[in-house]
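okkk here we go again. third time trying to get the flavin-adenine dinucleotide bound version out, last two times i messed up the smiles copy paste (missing a bracket lol). double checked this time i swear
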Amino acid sequence: VAKVVVQGAGVVGLCTAMLLAKDGHDVVVVERDAATEGLTAENAWDSWQRRGVNQFRLPHFFLPRFHQVVSRELPDVLTSITDVGALRSNLVLGIPEGFRGPTRPDDSDFDFSTGRRPVMEFAVASAAERAERVDVRRGSAVSALLTGTEAISDVPHVTGVRTESGEEISADLVVDCTGRRSPLPSLLEDVGARPPHEELDDSGFMYYARHFRSTDGSVPAGIGPALMPLGSITTLTLAADNGTWGVVVVAAAKDRAMLGLRDPDRWSTFVKSLPLIAHWLDGTPIDDGVITMTKLEDRLRDYSPGGSPVATGVVAVGDSWSCSNPTVGRGVSIGTLHALALRDAIRDVGVEPAALNQRFHARTEADVRPWFEWTRRTDRHRLGEMDAAARGDRYDSGDDAWELEQSLAAATMKDPDLLRANLRANMVLQPLEEALGGGLAERALELGAGWRDEPIPAPSRDELVAIAAG
Ligand SMILES: Cc1cc2nc3c(=O)[nH]c(=O)nc-3n(C[C@H](O)[C@H](O)[C@H](O)COP(=O)(O)OP(=O)(O)OC[C@H]3O[C@@H](n4cnc5c(N)ncnc54)[C@H](O)[C@@H]3O)c2cc1C
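finally!!
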């Protein structure tokens, strides 16, 4: 049995804590944001202040992979999620049979449970409160790492944390789950560690989002896909818990012509001009205005560059390790897969410092990094495509893999096998290359060959720019 400190009580930090506690380890979770008195699922949206999570009030979709992990590994979390009124459904069965074909036995893989971020996080936090061997302490940031005898010569060995209030908590392992803005590099620098190897893309996406609620508990019907690339912009329409939903216009962060969308009236006129999603405005807004977030770039920090750890006794999991374009909704699923990789590495070799770092690094590289790499590659192309569309140009990627993905997207509703293969990959259930085995890649290329000529269901770029400018 190991003593573990998890720093950060976001969704991934809490799931990591519960997975390790289930294996018999004693886990203390240290969270910077203070607890909110009298918090309930009903008031979480209005009352829960989470300064530590910038995206807390932005629309989220929790993919089938997250549902699969919690239903298999953390059933109490699934119970909580159901109790708070999460929207539970199935991605394939929600599509008319004429497109998806007859039901298949493994279609249950596409079950999902989703909701607004505060409501879903409340559900996960409630399960963590009930979990044995998990002690969540809110309102105290980790401000320093404690170190002890080195396990590898000249590599600091972390033996616990010190919080802002001066409390010292010793641990066999510290797990950093402090998210996109993780302070781990500077905490490590303070104890003399080498910096991690950082891969950062210099440009990203910008979100312009609003949430709505219906009067009768229903959510709008999806006419097009939830994630819709429309030339220089992308839209997201995300059904959520208790008759709520989110609508997002995503632009390139450097697309200044879209900055006018911060104004609620222009934002509404803009969304109204998009024929496939205009009806998603038919509800009462439940936020104060358009919520924006920028600098949504892709970043990965490798704390064992070349397999040689910058420190032992500490690992980074979830967004602290890698974060990527949130439009595709993979962050929580990739983070939970990463938590499973840590749990399994500890099962393999225990918490012996050098062995654990090596094992966790190997599992991360094999099972988790490919999801980040795929997302980053797609993001670079999508940003290139958005840029080109903003200039009125055509985007030539020169990348066969991207061409295949575009063909697959165009062919998805033409073939039930391709529909499922596309969803398996995009819902983080199966790597794309595997999902497109058995001749499906060739079929996608054939059926989706005309993807470049598909009409874009949106006004022209000039019209969109004019609406955004008011
Ligand atoms: C705009 C946007 C939309 C997104 N949409 C989706 C989506 O639809 N689907 C999806 O799966 N993912 C989505 N994501 C990604 C998802 O939000 C993240 O992957 C997820 O929050 C990562 O969880 P985490 O626990 O690693 O980090 P976080 O949720 O960021 O939690 C980090 C925690 O660490 C705490 N903390 C920070 N510093 C300290 C410290 N020094 N000491 C103690 N605690 C500290 C913070 O207060 C916070 O509670 C989106 C992200 C963004 C930015």
